[in-house]
Amino acid sequence: MIDEALQDEIRVAYQTLTEALKLNPRWGQRQMIAEVANALGDPEADPPIAVVEAGTGTGKTVAYLVAALPIARKRGKKVVVASATIALQEQLLFRDLPDVMRNSGLEYEAALAKGRGRYICLLKLDHQLSEQVIDPVIPLYPDEFAAPDRALAGPIFDEMVGALGSGRWDGDFDSWPGSLDAGVKRLVSTEQSQCIGRRCPHVSQCSFFRAREGLENADIVVTNHDLVLSDLRLGGGVILPAPEDCFYIFDEGHQLPSKCLNHFALRFHSGTTLQGLRDSERWVESSSAGWIKRGLDERIMPTLTALFEDLIERTLQISETFWALFPDEVVERAEYRLPHGRVPAALAEQAALFLAQWEKLHREASRLEAMLENRTSEAALVPEAQGEPVSDPDLDLINAQGMVARAEQQVAVWKAFAQAPNTEQPGDGWARWCLHRGNVQSIECQASPILPGELLKHSLWDRVAGAVVTSATLAALGTFDRFRERSGIPSSARWKQVASPFDPKKAIFSVPAMTTEPSQADAHTEELIALIPGLIRDDFGVLLLFTSRRQLEAVLAGIATNISHHRLVQDQLSKNALLTEHRRNIDRGEPSAIFGLASFFEGIDLPGDYCRHVVIAKLPFAVPDDPISSAHAELLDAQGRDPFMEINVPDAAQKLIQASGRLQRTEDDEGRITLLDKRLLSRRYGRVMLDTLPAFTFELAGRASR
Question: CB-based contacts of 76: which residues, under 8 Å, 6+ apart?
Fold first, then answer.
């Protein structure tokens, strides 16, 4: 049990905060404080994890900070608060945390943690401005961004130097005054695998390391999910403090499993691989003279060259093998998923040979890195001689580290294919698939765990000193089963649902009488076109949510002359610009309607008159073409289970609640939610979903219901 002194400290902090802000203590907030305190403060807790679904308006941030900070200090741990986005991260650091500190009596130091790629690399900037070095660094992912025009990029780099020198800029790309092309940023940013750290001549002025210095003395580290997962993929404790030394708090925690899959998925792209191998071969050939002068073992050069040639040949061979899996007809894009993740024996054998060569390249590249590392600290720039290219020790080391990283990635990919079950064995919980975009050199093959739970369990939950996972939507169909399976959090953790303090009966949830279902795509769209103008006529602030861009565009075109609202469409402007324009319209007394897709189902905050009506075109079932979801459904089906009821229905129910939650953002908010999908009333699964909605005032097919 948590000791009484800590209980008292938390109680006093919360009381001081509510009195300072003249707030009435919220029952749900107090419940959440208790759950967090009991999970983190009880030395006997196994595991020390609290999962709290806290409805909108609970005050999650106050609850987890007030509870976690005193316990962390007592136990000598840091608090790492991870949000889903950079925007939420900065809101927490610059608004929420100062408010809590100022009004609670708690005094803690906070620091912001972002990845290397969000800061300028002074070494790369220096060499981009140098006329001695041409195209100095081989990109880790050469297909990710188009190369920028050097004539246009040069003045930007000059401007960066001036801004850094005058102190007007701190080297953080997020604080650059204006937009930066992604390709330009790539030229002067770096990744973990390319940074030479303390050997860099610019390390004392490095923006990234300066930002990191604050983490050592900070009590609270504010970051995002992606950086946490990047750190875990590297083994933990590389970018952020080690999990064993931290209390992790995951806000918007429902996104964590999906983000985990993105980070741990394995990928091979034939075109990118070929380009990387050829770039590396040219780099070795052009640098070899300088290396010999610096005393490197010259025998490594022909060894590497031979490996590059062999890997280029094998890349072409295995691309042809994957190409043969597709139908003969040529299409712009095609995808093929290996049933049950099983790899045909012939392909597995070829993958094993490919793996062996990548492992050899990894060994030789690591050996080259070690040699360059030993020589870099004592070497000066080798002067140009007899027309030979300049060989720079720092950039050579960066390229060697990049080669090691690329080889490591490919070793992981081909282990996943070479060691996969063959046609005689059952699946192993992995999805494996390939796709192409019109030709054999656009082959991409990927492998991913079907469920991220085991990854998170081993890399995070089994190691962390304590953790809190919270969101307004963690449960589905009234249980945590789906999230528990996907997250890997043990059932013995503390699981709690805390209701929103807002009165759901102020919201009318309506399903009007309809003649069509979404399966009748064209007819359903026509019915939406007929219904929507009348539904929203009296509402100034409207949010219309679609699961299909095609249907959104068809509806928008069909109602164009029938509504007087300003029509703002997702992706026509940035999200922030679109919301700003919408608010401006409402403030002028002009009706405004936002047409959004899946990403607008959550994270949209339009209180009061900004949103009085949420229209949902149909139940938000996921499009069934995702290879990981398809593999999961296949696995459940093979086990005699019902994938639709275990995956599709819970996920759609959760998204429906998220979409409905756009209406009530404050205690005073009221209005209407309209679902234009009669399946909620006519299908068995629909009734199950209906029963788990908040206690709205319901109007179902024209009949009032309480």
Answer: none
